[in-house]
Amino acid sequence: MKLSRRALLGTAALSAVQPLARRARGDEATIRIGVLNDQSGPYRDVSGLNSVVCVKQAIQDFGARAKSLNVEVLSADHQNKPDVGAGIARQWFDRDGVDMIIDVPTSSVGLAVASVCREKNRAYINVGAGTSELTGKQCAPTTIHWAYDTWMLAHSTGGATVKSGGTTWYFLTADYVFGHDLQSETSHFVTEAGGKVLGNSTYPFPSTSDFSSFLLQAQASGAKVLGLANAGADTVNCIKQAHEFGLTGKTQIAALLMFITDVHALGLETAQGLVLTESFYWDLNDRTRAFTSRVKDKTPNNIPNMVQAGCYAGTIHYLKAVVDLGAAAAKASGAATVARMKAMPTDDDAFGKNHIREDGRVLVPAYLFGVKKPSESKGPWDYYKLLFTTPGDEAFRPLKDGNCPLVHA
Amino acid sequence: MFSIFGIPAPLLFGQILLGLINGGFYALLSLGLAIIFGMLNIINFAHGALFMMGAFVAWMLLNYLGINYWFALLLSPLIIGVFGIVLEKAVISRLYKLDHLYGLLLTFGLALVIEGLFRNEFGSSGLPYQIPPILSGAVNLGFMFLPIYRGWVVVVAFVVCLATWLIIEKTRLGSTLRAATENPALVQAFGVNVPRLVSLTYAGGVALAAFAGVLAAPIYSVNPNMGSNFIITVFAVVVIGGMGSIIGSVLTGFGLGIVEGLTKVFYPQASDTVIFVVMVIVLLTRPAGLFGKTA
Amino acid sequence: MLGYSRAQGMALGILIALVIVAPGVLYPVFVMKVLCFALFAAAFNLLIGYVGLLSFGHAAFFGIGSYVTAWTAKNWGLTPELAILLGGLGGAVLGLVFGWLAIRRQGLYFAMITLALAQMVYFFCVEAPFTGGEDGIQQVPRGRLFGVFSLQNDMAMYWVAAAIFLAGFLLLHRVVHSPFGQVMKAIRENEPRATSLGYRTDSYKLIAFVISTFMAGIAGGTKSLVFGIATLTDVHFSMSGEVVLMTLLGGLGTIFGPVVGALVVTGMENYLAPFGAWVTVTQGVIFIACVLAFRRGIMGELGALLKIDL
């Protein structure tokens, strides 16, 4: 008995020291950035450690040290679970003195963390989540949404596909909020442009790996376009199997959310001819190439995609606002920092010059890319050719349709 | 074109065939699981991870050594089988006297470690693996467009299951195996090296998983999570078929593939839950599963 | 006292002292999470440790408790104590149905039926509109206790969670040491003999099952108020696995084991989060080590060392 009591007291004493040490550190004017994303699940390659690398690159490129700003980076895995994500966010704010959270893929986690940030008045730059709710009904004075959202994908990929003659659609939809959003928003553009939705299959997420049955149903419907309202490994599997079942010749595939990492996973042989939307591509211009060459060696697996580039750009812009506002004031109020970010135009190597709307939406241009044939590709990661550019102020949902409460004020 | 329940008949036939193909994977995986359970009394939760490793080994053989699909189909199960022997000797053999729960937890832990390590090394978005040229393309069956590779999968799965059943039921090795399951001490007394037999059985079971993994590589992406999508379903197949029953696991595997395929037409959202509905009904009406012996 | 031995009484005193001291030392929200899981694991332990029933779908009851509490607190504006109580009742009602079905089978088959039923509950929660699907029920208000005391402050919430945990923990212990508990243990040791002694073993098992699921529902409900969110995580299969891990790691059939197990597992998830991808690997290694090296769990081994029941 004695032994256990001593052991327990020992543990208690030990853990008592740690948080005190942390609290003491919290007093200096250090800016702490928390990168919260998926580091072990299906979106690990889309966000993950590459996002952390990009945030650190941003701090270096911004020249934080030269501007006598002390910046620390924390990172954690939210396992795509809203409660885990919200729990980590709370703990970061309450205990570790984090001032800004960035990335947060997976819509449900993105929304959960947004409400924690709002409650605690800390800045929040979401890059990884797709839901347009972040700048819609659930917008917050502390939230900024970078890179992309479901409306922008549906508008760019969906709209372009209808325009090029893809008038009848069949959807393959992952049975969760993101999938349903993507499907309904795309359906909207399809019908608006005079097209028709012939049917859909909603499949269990994330436990489905065989899509052949749904592909057969899509084929039987006679639709010209197969709309994939899903992401990551599901999209890759769908396209692979569509190829196998000979759908690719007759039916056009519209992968509504696809990243360059997914194209890499498919291989150009299978992926060629696909049409997709991203707001960043490494080989777009001199600035994007320069940015990519800076981070490439630090990320062994991947070239950055739009999410990771968004983490870079978001961090740069946030630090600009912090310097402008003064570190102490920025630490005191996330809403004030975000307001200052909205007031300043953005300028970075990944996305160029843009600005942020009052609902928190960053108006970056949306690029419609076609995937190259293997013969057209000149080297590793040379995958896209630019088909069409939608300028930033047309790429996203009009302010009045979002019903963001901030806008009425 | 006539129709059944409002679904055009050709579509329905197509779905049944596709269900049968998926059933082939279930049968191969649950067969290995059933053999291991029958002999070792271990519920091998690492089965999904070993299935995944089988696919990865095929990918590595191709990309690091230039060894093609056909040799991978042979080599990968061998490599994973050897790995299985190591696992069995090193950890699993310590659990034979204990409750099922411990075997389940240990192999679950193994699965977490294996999948975690692969994820750290290869990422989670998957790796490409092409269908071998001979098997690419498709044939038109009239009611559907069948990729040749899928046809190959269902045939080869069926043949392998049949061969395994024959080995266990009709050969001398098989009868020794079955005897060792019933009474290891007696078989040992007859001069059979039972621990070695047990190791080989485990190796055989996981080799079947690896074989299924290689078969799956060209149609599903080679992905560290590919096994965990399967494992609970396959586990349910074994329970429904009757724990340890070879023929039960094979037939149930194919059968549930069809049930799942039909659910995908009528109520796709429920296609992975339907198996559990079947499981509850079966266990409440036939306590030892469809083909199990009642104790 | 209350069926505790002297050593157990002292351990209980230490536990209570730790619950009081902990929020001053550790992050209170983290401690609350540990307390919720500790209660959940203790409820699970009642079945596996004392009746010998392995439920592989306990997340269903935890999750339903969590959803019912969150939904009633958010949409009906119920006070926290009523919402949590309803959560517990939700768990108990579901437990009554599932238990009634599952206790017809033994051992592994019992585990499989509970697993299958829990998968159906998960499916229901994915599809049903009131659960909010993937997003879950977010921004659940903590409300005012008895309509009076606001729980918005973390420390206020902490004392409520601590009180719920201690009450639940003592109640479970009381059940184990009652005449009812003795029959439970008799069933675990030798069911046919208990039957031949004239006990309706099925009724005992069912009652134990319902008590356990009630407590699981309470634990889930409390968790949803603490974090202000009820999600699919709470009903997912991995939650069922996690509670098995906690109980096993702490020690099956020990009084304090589930609490220690909950602390270790939750702590691990919390403090390993910065290491990202290594979390699953570490968890796996701990599983393996636990099964190979200390099968009786932390408190089981410690108790054996000190020759007392902890």
Give a structural overview:
The complex is a heterotrimer of chains A (409), B (295) and C (310). Chain A is of the alpha/beta class and 409 residues long. Chain A folds into two domains: 28-148 and 285-365, Response regulator (Rossmann fold, 3-Layer(aba) Sandwich); 151-283 and 366-389, 3-Layer(aba) Sandwich (Rossmann fold). Chain A contains 17 helices and 14 strands. Chain A has helices at 2-25, 48-62, 82-94, 107-120, 150-163, 177-192, 212-221, 232-244, 247-250, 260-266, 268-271, 286-296, 306-325, 327-332, 334-343, 392-395, 405-408, and strands at 30-37, 70-77, 100-103, 123-126, 143-145, 168-174, 196-203, 225-229, 252-255, 275-278, 346-348, 352-354, 366-371, 384-390. In chain A, strands 2-1-3-4-5 form a five-stranded parallel β-sheet, sandwiched between helices. In chain A, strands 7-6-8-9 form a four-stranded parallel β-sheet, sandwiched between helices. In chain A, β3 (100-103), α4 (107-120) and β4 (123-126) form a beta-alpha-beta unit. In chain A, α2 (48-62) runs parallel beside α13 (306-325) and α3 packs parallel to α4 (107-120). Residues 1-27 of chain A have low confidence and may be disordered. Chain B has 295 residues and is mainly alpha-helical. In chain B, strands 1-2 form a two-stranded antiparallel ribbon. A two-stranded antiparallel sheet of chain B has the order 3-4. The model of chain B has no long low-confidence stretch (mean pLDDT 87). Chain C is mainly α and 310 residues long. Chain C is 74% helix and 1% strand. Chain C has helices spanning 6-25, 28-51, 59-75, 80-102, 107-127, 154-176, 179-189, 191-196, 201-227, 237-250, 257-272, 278-293, 297-306; strands at 144-145, 149-150. A two-stranded antiparallel ribbon of chain C has the order 1-2. In chain C, α7 packs across α9 (201-227). Chain C is globular, with a radius of gyration of 19 Å. The relative contact order of chain C is 0.19. The interface between A and C is large, with 41 and 43 residues.
